[in-house]
Amino acid sequence: MRVTCAVVFTVLSCVVADPAIAQAQSRPVSNRPGRFLSLPNAQKCANRPKQFFFRGHNYFFSGHVPELAGRKVDWLDARNICREYCMDLVSMETQEENNMIFRLIQQNDVPYIWTSGRLCDFKGCENRPDLEPKNIFGWFWSANREKIQPTNRAPAGFSFNPWSQTGHKKQRQPDNAEFDINGTSESCLSILNNVYNDGIAWHDVACYHEKPFVCEDSDELLNYVASTNRGIRL
Ligand SMILES: [Ca+2]
Ligand SMILES: [Ca+2]
Questions:
Q1: Which ligand is closest in space to the CA of residue 166?
Q2: Which residues form the signal peptide (predicted)?
């Protein structure tokens, strides 16, 4: 079974090159075997929900799409729902984009969402001094595999640090708090809406929790579907 999974992973990684799959497969918190990243569905990509548009990308909040409203899913399922639409979970590379997502959460009173932020703590992340210590330098946007800037200061171009200054342990985020409770790492980036009386802020959260989510266009998947479906309108 392991060999089969590895082969499938290799095939998938030719298209998406995402080591997060390997981690998702080996996570003890999931009882579901063989979980992989989904490939895009051309028809769904062409008809994907386009709730709002920013700097060349379309976005939607799952709670505002009739077929997804009310659904809460774990981090990998959220990614895969987005990916079938040639999207991926949202990544906030700029303060402007981050503020747009914070506003969406505030105006709609959304308690929390998943983003594509991920801790590089799986196979392939070893022996990388540039990622140490992991809680400061080990985060990246899985949607495009860009590094997230050090967690202990305001990212370049931001006037504030979007990571919360508090949480379960009353320590600044990321705090990997659930690890102390049940041994599960907080490897996924969620935006929480005032859960710790801390306003709307970034938190590291264990990836098995079920949440609504925001999808953002994936250039990689849109280009892939465009190049393999001549004449398709995306
Ligand atoms: Ca983005
Ligand atoms: Ca946390």
A1: 2
A2: 1-17
Query: Which tens digit of pLDDT belongs to each residue from 168-203?
Result: 999 999 999 999 999 999 999 999 999 999 999 999
73 C-alpha to ligand 2 centroid (Å) = 18
Smallest-distance ligand from the CA of 198: 2
Sign of CA dihedral 151, 89, 121, 211: positive
Measure the CA–CA gap between 48 and 217, rounded to whole angstroms: 9
What ligand has the least distance to the C-alpha of 146? 1
Query: Taking a C-beta distance cutoff of 8 angstroms, is the pair 129, 120 a contact?
Result: no
Does the pLDDT of residue 8 top 80, yes or no? no
Q: Any idea which residue has 């990544």 for tokens?
A: 91
Other C-beta atoms lying within 10 Å of the C-beta of residue 79:
28
Phi, psi angles (nearest 5°) of residue 217 = -50, 140
Domains of the chain: residue spans and CATH: 41-228 (3.10.100.10)
How many A from CA of 104 to the centre of ligand 1?
A: 15
> Residues in the chain, how many?
234
Q: Tell me the pTM.
A: 0.86
Ligand 1 centroid to residue 91 C-alpha, Å:
4
